[in-house]
Amino acid sequence: MSAADVREAITRAHHEEWARVVAALARRFGDLDIAEEAASEAFATAVERWPADGVPPNPGAWLTTTANRKAIDLVRRESKRGGKQKEARLLYDDPPEPLGAIDDERLRLIFTCCHPALAMETRVALTLRMVGGLTAAEIARAFLVRETAMGRRLTRAKAKIKAARIPYRVPSAEDLPGRVSGVLAVLYLVFNEGYLATGPDADPVRHDLTAEAIRLTRLVRALMPQDGEAAGLLALMLLTEARRTARVSPSGELIALDEQDRGAWDRALIAEGHRLVRERLAAGAAPGRYQVLAAINAVHTSARDVRDTDWSQVLALYDRLVRLDPSPVVALNRAISVAELDGPQVALALVDRLEDELAGYHAHHATRADLLRRLGRGPESRAAYDKAIDLAGNTAEIAWLTRRRDQLG
Q: What residues does the RNA polymerase sigma factor 70 region 4 type domain cover (predicted)?
C-alpha cells in the first residue's frame, strides 16, 4: 500500500470513526477531556504506525482499542494524585449501559453536548468538535472568531459538563420535549457545515458530516415520532443531500441550483423527503421552521427543469417562514424568489435594506452581485462579487463567484 493510500485510509477512518471512538470513551470514562485527548492520541499513533505496519483490517476496532489504552494511561497518571479506586473500576469493571430509549452512543454524546445548561453557540461548537471531529480552527472559522477564543470556549464547556455532572445519556421520555428543539438546531448546523464547509482547507462538501447529521436526526425522530419538527428537519436534510453529487463540478466549482443536472439528483432521497413533507401536511398541525424549509425544498425538487419551478408557491412559503423566523437571512432568501416573480429591481431594493445587518455575510453580496448583473450594472456587480469572494470561506463557492465575476468582462 502506497503512502498516499495510507494517508487516505487515515483520513477516511477519522471521518468515519472519530465520533464512535469519542462516544465509546465518554461512556466508559465519563470525561469529555479524557475522551477527546485519548482519541486524538490514538489517531496520532495511527499516523505513526500505519505507514510502517499497514492499515489494520478493522481500523475502527484498532482505534478504539488504542484510544482505550491511552485513556487508561491518562487515568493512571491522574490516579497518582488521587486514590486508586477509580482506576481499578475503569480497568476491571464493565460499566453498565446507560438507560435510554435508543441505544446509540453517538446520540447520547449529542444530548450531552446539547445540554440546556450550555449556551446554544457552545452546544454547536462542542458537537462539531466531539461528534463531527472538526478542529478548533475549523469551528472558529464557522463562528468567525479566533482559534484561541474557540479553544477556550470548548475547554469551558467540557469543564461545565464535568462540574455540573451532566449525565451521558438520552434524557427520559418526560424530558425529551424540552430538549429536542436544541438538539435539532445543533444537528441542522452540523449538517450545514458539511453541506457547505467553511474552512478554506476543507473539502467543499463534507459528506461525513451530512451523513452523520442525517443518521442522528433519524434517531431523534424515532425517539419522538410525533414531533413535526424532527420529521421536518429530516425531510429538509434528505432533500438537500439528494442534490449533493450535482452541486460541485469535477474542477471543484460550486454548481448553482439553476445550473445543476437534475438527472443526477438522488430520486430515492427526494421521494422519502417528499413523503415526510406530505405526512406533515396531512397531520394538519401548524408547521414549524424546519417543516416550512422542507416544503420549500420539496417545491424545488419537484421541478424537472428550473423553468418549471413554482415560484409563487416558494414565495408564499417564505412569507410564512418570515413570520416564524424574521431573520435577515430568511428575508434575503425571500428576496431571491421575489426576483423571479417581480424582477431584479424590486428584489434589489429588498436586499439593499439588509445591508447593515448582513454586511459581513458573503451570500448577501453574492445576491446583490447577481441582481446587479441582471440589471446590466456591471461595475457595481463586479464590486459586489469582490466583496462576496473576500468573505466566502468555501473553496467551491469562491471558484463559482470568481467565474461569475470574470464573465462580466
A: 110-161
Under a CB-based contact definition with an 8 Å cutoff, are residues 359 and 375 in contact? Answer: no
Q: Which residues contact 312 (CB under 8 A, 6 or more apart)?
A: 341
97 burial via Cβ count (<10 Å: 0-12, 13-18, 19+): exposed
**pLDDT tens-digit readout, 196-243:** 766 655 677 778 788 888 988 998 898 888 899 999 999 999 999 999
What is the distance between the alpha carbons of residues 177 and 172, in angstroms, rounded to a whole number?
10
Could you give the dihedral angle defined by the CA atoms of residues 175, 177, 179 and 185, in that order, rounded to the nearest 10 degrees? 170
Among the listed residues 39, 48, 37, 54, the one whose alpha carbon sits nearest the alpha carbon of residue 1:
54
What are the sequence ranges of the domains in the chain? 3-92, 103-169+176-224, 325-409
Backbone φ, ψ for residue 248 (5° rounding): -130, 130
**DSSP bridge pairs for 248:** 254
- The verdict on domain 325-409 having CATH code 1.25.40.10 is yes
**Which contacts qualify for 364-371: CB closer than 8 Å, 24 or more apart?**
364/332, 365/391, 366/392, 366/401, 367/332, 367/335, 367/336, 369/401, 369/404, 369/405, 370/404, 371/339, 371/344, 371/347
Give the span between the Cα atoms of 400 and 122, in whole angstroms: 32
Q: Give residue-wise pLDDT tens across range 304-344.
A: 999 999 999 999 999 999 999 999 999 999 999 999 999 99
Q: Could you tell me if 368 and 404 are in contact, meaning their C-beta atoms sit under 8 angstroms apart?
A: no
Nearest C-alpha neighbor of 244 from the set 290, 196, 201? 196
Q: Tell me the C-alpha distance between 43 and 247, whole Å.
A: 31
CA-based R_g, the chain, Å: 23
